[in-house]
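Researcher: Please translate sequence to structure tokens.
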Amino acid sequence: MQVQIYTKDYCPYCDRAKEFFQARGVAYDEINIQRDPEQYAALKARTQHMTVPQIFVDGQFIGGYTDMIAKVKQGELTIG
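Model: Translation complete:
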């Protein structure tokens, strides 16, 4: 499973997403878009979302932290 989390500094939902994966022993790549405005612009164009975190699992856009948790609870997404 390949996980990417696009984050910004001082983002509590970003921290929660990272903690969620860490607690399950799932490795992830963190991309801090606050330090790279061009990458942020490309991400917004790709997902049409303005907020972070933006989470991708195996290349599929999952949404933010609350979107991911809802999908896990509904059985639409299995992590770890």
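Researcher: Any highlights?
Model: Strands lie at 3-7, 29-32, 54-57, 60-63.
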